[in-house]
Amino acid sequence: xxxxxxxxxxxxxxxxxxxxxxxxxxxxxxxxxxxxxxxxxxxxxxxxxxxxxxxxxxxxxxxxxxxxxxxxxxxxxxxxxxxxxxxxxxxxxxxxxxxxxxxxxxxxxxxxxxxxxxxxxxxxxxxxxxxxxxxxxxxxxxxxxxxxxxxxxxxxxxxxxxxxxxxxxxxxxxxxxxxxxxxxxxxxxxxxxxxxxxxxxxxxxxxxxxxxxxxxxxxxxxxxxxxxxxxxxxxxxxxxxxxxxxxxxxxxxxxxxxxxxxxxxxxxxxxxxxxxxxxxxxxxxxxxxxxxxxxxxxx
Length: 299
Description:
It contains six helices and 20 strands. By secondary structure, it is α+β, with helices and mostly antiparallel strands. The longest helix is centred in the N-terminal third of the chain and has 13 residues, at 74-86.
């Protein structure tokens, strides 16, 4: 089986979020789940995608962390289509379908960028009880301090929500970049909280930015799945896009730029685009990718 190592959400090698991509031969069934978990653990990236081509424009993707299979992974999807482009299996200006456990997703390659349509966005609940808030912020290593924001001219305070665009995450607002940088989670406790709330992890963000072209700075933690911190997360930034839309901070047709990975010295830029059709919000997430290596797995 051929494999690639691809840095997603960056134009330069050693930036963004690296992922493994493993190509199955045409007609070859997926290996056993145990073998795919072992392969992901051996490659040592937060996610590895296994891809099977079903027809010219239709691909089946399965995603594995070093610990388990997950329904969807945004950065591994971007990495997969960058690898498919390098292998000559897709064109630089085309539209494709990716079958995932989160559903069939539309993928668009255009102008050097790969954009993927996220799963149907859902708000799964607000974390608002004082005990729940204190537990969450204590686990993240910071005092509970609401993040103030102006919405429609009125000062309000942002609260954490569980949001999904394919994978559920706690979207955690913090008041400024200094607070974001100071996050120091208790990873075993965060794993237990993630199990209790049935989420992938925590996606923390601040709207405190130094540039008008940056929507938010972010950090993502998913120790339940063997990922202490990720440099770029497509699904979580899709969820953040929906969170901001539901608060009235984004409008139909607006594009976001999220910066992530700064704390890991792997700066990433994740684009998202929101459009609403017949009152149904549709979210795309994507960006660029850089191929670092390719070779063959002797399995």
